[in-house]
Amino acid sequence: MLDSLITSKTRLRLLVKFFINAANRGHMRGLAEEFNESTNAIRKELNNLSEAGYLEKEAQQNRVSYRANVKHPLFGSLQDIVHKYLGLDRIVETVLRRMGDVEQVVLIGDYAEGRDSGTIEVVIVGQELNAAYLEQLAPKVEGVIERKVIFTLSSERIDDGLVLYEH
């Protein structure tokens, strides 16, 4: 869906990296290694996104660090688009529908750090959750969002990761 609108795979990966979680940061060489791309391709896209105001630059010693510009008027919209592109909105909606008393839905692992690895890890926190429903849910969600999903149940609140829902 989004990849047909944004034809640059590098730009799309950078948008996922920075807009899935506003706390994510990166620098050119690290991003080039992470994405297995040339530094020129990364530099070009970082410059384009920075000039448009979507990313902020910050000089740190001898390198420039980038992060999402949370003050940009389209920040919330871009974050929503990235979440929809990855199917996170559908995961939360589906989980809340029949899981019981859900306190938190937290994204952990690669996607929380902005890496589009193909496996989404989600922790569902609550008491007396419907584990049987969850076993049926994973394959259905995977078919809809075209990514592998691993659900984990917990009774303890999660402090790290990206909180997608909190009650």
Written overview of the protein:
The chain is built from 7 helices and 7 strands. 44% of the residues lie in helices and 26% in strands. The mean pLDDT is 88. It has 2 domains: 2-76, Orthogonal Bundle (Arc Repressor Mutant, subunit A); 87-166, Beta Polymerase, domain 2, CATH 3.30.460. By secondary structure, it is of the alpha+beta class.
Q: Secondary structure elements and their pairing?
A:
Blueprint: H1 2-5, H2 9-19, E1 25-27, H3 28-35, H4 39-51, E2 55-60, E3 63-68, H5 75-86, H6 88-98, E4 101-108, E5 119-127, H7 131-145, E6 148-154, E7 162-166
Helix pairs in contact: 3-4, 6-7
InterPro entries: WH-like_DNA-bd_sf (IPR036388), WH_DNA-bd_sf (IPR036390)
Protein name: Transcriptional regulator
Organism: Parapedobacter pyrenivorans
Short description:
The chain is an alpha+beta fold and 167 residues long. 44% of the residues lie in helices and 26% in strands. Helix 7 links the parallel strand 5 and strand 6 (148-154).
